[in-house]
Design the sequence.
């Protein structure tokens, strides 16, 4: 079994979704799980729309209209006239619920993390439904399953932690029971044990695919994106960047953790534990082998594999004689940051009286 994940650009419009269908049709093997992101740009649009609504700025309606048009146009271009009205009416009814949620945020003048998760989930809910319908029409043996029934988490909205024991069991039960060759799943979204909707963090569709791959002991996890693999630097910014044909889990984890957005950092952990390789491929250049990530150390040993950068980082410098020899001072710094859900990426003790975070 293979798990294939297609990111936002790969499913951004009808033309790209048709390329995805060609790739999935050619994938061999008995069973293939296909995980999809929201149509490119929709997650940001949903979050911006929610923020505007919470600020009681009624221009949120213009953004909502854009979200609606993107989905409705994609359906009109992909689905034949015969099935169009059924698919359109299902999507319109979902969009009505989304509109009600946004009206709620507008009326009360705020969004809670829980409401925000509900609003943002429409990206993947709609994309997976539309793509599933298109695949069925194209004659693929496909079933669309609800990721919320498979991926179980705690109830921390925004970036929930996965309950692997429960999730692994649910994945095995549901995927094994499904007779279809292809199973399509929404990435990024999950649900808590008491049924509330949760999400796995920005970029989390990669993680959904890895969780399913590990639960099913898949032979390979393929991450299909808009570049031909993991590069020595972000190829969209550095024109001399070169693709890395083969890299170890540890090296890939380090590059992704420090800014190589092509792979969401938590993705590697579940597949590493099972020794499942990850292949990063380009939807727009499917013949390119891309990058393969395995447990084997690269023969080049400890050479530099790539250069990354992280945006939106704050440098916090704490200094003063009051820090010297006081037990628990570091605990207090980190506690405050953790209470505000701030993740510390690097810690440098410059001297006894100076700590840089
Ligand atoms: P998707 O929507 O398919 O998940 P992402 O936008 O999350 O795609 O990740 C792909 C992007 O990651 C590329 O378009 C590229 O700009 C960026 N990127 C950053 N660093 C790297 C790197 N070292 N190698 C490849 N891509 C990188
Ligand atoms: N759509 C979500 C995001 O943009 C998840 C993903 O695409 O991986 O963050
Ligand atoms: Mg991504």
Sequence:
């Amino acid at each position: 079994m293979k798990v294939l994940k297609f990111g936002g650009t790969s499913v951004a419009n009808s033309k790209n979704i048709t390329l995805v269908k060609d790739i999935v049709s050619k994938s061999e093997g008995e069973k293939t799980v296909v995980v999809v992101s929201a149509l490119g740009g929709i997650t940001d649009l949903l979050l911006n729309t929610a923020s505007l609504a919470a600020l009681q700025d009624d221009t949120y309606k213009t953004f909502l209209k854009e979200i609606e048009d993107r989905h409705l146009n994609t359906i009109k271009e992909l689905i034949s006239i015969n099935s169009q009205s059924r698919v359109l009416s299902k999507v319109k009814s979902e969009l009505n619920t989304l509109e009600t949620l946004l009206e709620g945020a507008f009326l009360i003048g705020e969004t809670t993390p829980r409401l925000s998760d509900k609003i943002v989930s429409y990206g993947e809910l709609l994309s997976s439904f539309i793509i599933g319908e298109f695949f069925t029409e194209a004659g693929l043996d496909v079933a669309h399953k609800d990721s919320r029934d498979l991926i179980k988490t705690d109830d921390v909205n925004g970036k929930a932690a996965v309950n692997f024991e429960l999730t692994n069991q649910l994945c095995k039960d549901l995927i094994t029971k499904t007779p279809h060759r292809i199973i399509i799943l929404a990435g990024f979204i999950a649900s808590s044990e008491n049924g509330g909707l949760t999400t796995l963090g920005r970029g989390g569709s990669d993680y959904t695919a890895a969780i399913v791959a590990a639960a099913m002991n898949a032979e390979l996890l393929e991450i299909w994106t808009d570049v031909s693999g993991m590069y020595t630097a972000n190829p969209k910014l550095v024109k001399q960047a070169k693709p890395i044909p083969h890299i170890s889990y540890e090296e890939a984890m380090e590059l992704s953790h420090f800014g190589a957005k092509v792979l969401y950092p938590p993705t590697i952990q579940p597949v590493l534990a099972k020794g499942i390789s990850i292949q990063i491929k380009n939807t727009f250049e499917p013949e390119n082998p891309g990058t393969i990530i395995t447990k084997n150390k690269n023969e080049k040993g400890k050479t530099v594999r790539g250069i990354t950068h992280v945006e939106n980082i704050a440098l916090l410098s704490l200094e003063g004689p009051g820090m010297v020899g006081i037990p628990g001072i570091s605990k207090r710094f980190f506690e405050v940051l953790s209470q505000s859900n701030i993740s510390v990426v690097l810690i440098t003790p410059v001297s006894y009286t100076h700590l840089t975070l």
